[in-house]
Specification:
The chain has 13 helices and 21 strands. By secondary structure, it is of the alpha/beta class. The protein folds into 3 domains: 206 residues, FAD/NAD(P)-binding domain, CATH 3.50.50; 110 residues, 3-Layer(bba) Sandwich (FAD/NAD(P)-binding domain), CATH 3.50.50; 105 residues, Enolase-like, domain 1. Helix 1 packs parallel to helix 9 and helix 3 crosses helix 6. Bound molecules: flavin-adenine dinucleotide.
Amino acid sequence: MNQSQFDFDFLVIGGGSGGVRAARFAAQTGAKVGVAEATKLGGTCVNVGCVPKKLYSHAATYAEYFEEARGFGWTIGSIPQFDWDTLKKNRAAEISRLNELYRSLLDQANVQILNGWASFIDPHTIDVSGQRFTAENILIATGGRPWIPPIPGSELGVTSDSMFDLPTFPRRLLVVGGGYIGCEFASIFSALGADVVQVQRHDRLIPAFDEDLSNFLAQEMRKSGIDIRFNTTALRLERSTGGIRAHLDNSQAIEVDVVLFATGRLPATRDLGLEKAGVMNDRNGAVAVDAQYKSNVPSVFAVGDVSSRQHLTPIALAEAMVVVDSLFRDKQRVMDYSHIPTAIFTHPNVGTVGLTEAQARERFGDVAVYRTDFRPLKHTLSGSSARTLMKLVVDRASDKVVGVHMVGDEAGEIIQGFAVALRAGATKQLFDTTVGIHPTGAEEFVSMRQPVV
Ligand code: FAD
């Protein structure tokens, strides 16, 4: 087949973060592009991920503000009331606006939107709800889906997909899982008024992160009232008169209204017909791709959560641009996965970039660690006992700062700038000679002089 025999130059399966980015930018080069989407445009991030999660995190922040305002002289007339239905309604309206925005961006770029479930017929053909389309190149950007452990009664639990639209606000919530999604929901629902128990089968939260961050986060989350139980998991769920009874593996049982399984996500490759196109998975079930996101089949690419790298929206976007550059702009390049900053929107936030202390020790051997843990100025009057943690990890041989970690207000906002500094190879000396902004919490990052290790 030559190019003119295909319906499209580029056909994208999945209208989420990676798919929409790839489709739009490919179409802007003049390519004929289609994107197949089974549900709503915007994918996980817009519909059931980053965006609604951050909006709900803002909702939770107000609960803290009301509490803390008194110390600053405010009298809150009557006790502030939280209305779950109003939050859900306003969130849904905003998400619908974003769905439409994505649609108009694709329309403006002349991308044809194919509504329906897509699956491969062969390496150049996909079926979208009974209609066949051919394309010179096909991008799989189908994202991931939550995984629920196969325990008895697991069908009584929900995943993050359902949490934003729970019919009633859960007064008692069990979160199974101590990864970032579990921690965020535990934090948000606790601040909004739920009694939250969080079970984590490991001995710390967010195990992929720096250990100091994990420990500090657990301490702060516990202070805010979350009952975190380590080395514990749910073995069985059953319906009880008052809700759901969860049997834990320490012979305890608790009764809750909602059980959230935040127990990991799998690449969304089910019912995609990958075998018909001859596309291979790696051992995690993700589409196996090379550094340019090409699968073992030359006309098939994959980006975002459906492949095996870090599962973050900006990663899906950046990978999509590598594919567009290589296919439509004649620019071959490889994505740099070092120094990827990330935030967790717990209360308080976590922000991090670079290596954990353990990773730095493994890579460099001799590292210096600078750490400070303090009460933010605001909380001298607010009455809150919340503290902030900041940590720098430095390779002693080169003096380069290789890790910047924080737990505290606006950690995500603060760490973004430090990600640029780390990518630029900033040394500790450069941090030391940088003037701080006073009075801020962030100035501590340029004021730490004595290593603790
Ligand atoms: P997605 O955005 O998931 O898009 C995949 C799309 O493909 C979906 O719309 C789906 O309907 C469609 N699809 C799937 N199969 C088919 C098919 N066969 N045919 C047609 N369409 C199909 N990342 C961050 O960076 N920051 C955050 O704060 C953050 N918070 C998160 C919170 C939660 C609760 C979750 C679950 C995720 C969060 N993420 C966050 C991760 C982020 O959402 C994902 O990394 C990102 O959405 C991945 O983009 P993607 O393009 O790979 O897939």
